[in-house]
Amino acid sequence: MAEPVMERPAVQADVKPVQDIAPAAEPPGEEPGPARSRTRLGLFVLAPLAVAAFAAWYVLGGSVVSTDNAYIQAERVGVTTDVAGIVAAIEVTDNQVVHQGQVLFRLKAEPFEIALASANAQLDSARNQIMFLKASYNQSLAEIAQAEAKLPYYQTNFQRLEKLVSVNAVSKTNFDDAHQDLDNTRQKVAVAKAQAAAALAQLGGRLDTPVEQHPSYLQAQAAVNEAERNLRNSVVVAPFDGVVTNVDSLQVGAYLQPPQSAFSLVSSDHLWVAASPKETELTHAQPGQSVTIEVDTYPGVIWHGTVESISPASSASFSLLPAQNTTGNWVKVVQRIPVRIRIDDSAGKPPLRHGMSAVVDIDTGAARGLPNPLASLFASHHE
Fold this sequence. Notes:
single chain; alpha+beta; CATH 2.40.50.100; Methane Monooxygenase Hydroxylase, Chain G, domain 1; 4-stranded antiparallel sheet; 12 strands; coiled coil
């Protein structure tokens, strides 16, 4: 008898409606499709604008030459005097502000006063000597006139006795006396003329020349002037407005002689900027161009200036041993050219000091242009 076949129950699938199935979630970190499209569109628009802006900045921004290799410079001198002496007093202190003509220090005045008194005495002696020469000349002229007035008498007497002695009418002694008188008178005239000529020569050839114009008087007056100058220079004054420094290096009692420097004076008025931009940046730089100046000591403060001059040689050219590229392993180094910049608006600004670091921007007014490869490419494409 056949076994009955048992039927398995059909498995019903768990089927849900289509509307109940949730869409698959986006991978984390990814934007939805429309958002990604907007981002890509923004990139496609902004990227060319950024490139164009950078290109415009590169081409047009090259008109400004900027360098931080710049320093404030000022007139600076070593204070000294051209006379030697012992320091008697120091009238200033270190880092003191001084003005032109202000006394800085003094040397002992006694030696210079003695020298001046001696020179004045020599001047008086020269004046007296000139007056004596004039008197001697006048006296010589008087002696000449007196001797010449007697000369005809002695000449006539000699001739008369000469005739008488030939006939033995007078003695030989009388004749000799007459001859001697004539010779003496002639000698007096000659001596007086010689003395007058010598006196006139010492007077410079002219009797009417004023005493103050005589060479010996002028020489003595020059000695007086020099003594007065030395006395005046024993008091050392500031040649310009500024600040004195290293005053402590000079002490009272020290012997100072030229050209020894006592201490330094740095100008507070005449300042400028010494900049050294690269040679490749000075293509369009010219004197007269405007400059903006920032000093590291005063952030945010702007000075304005003008290019005053550009050095005719690089900084390395003035070194004691200039570089000589004579070997085969030579490396090209960009040189720096010194530029002097005048500061135009220092009034009302913080004080500038010699040696301060600065950043300068020179407005050349010329665009940089395209790089050489791009310029060549555009030129060939245009052709």
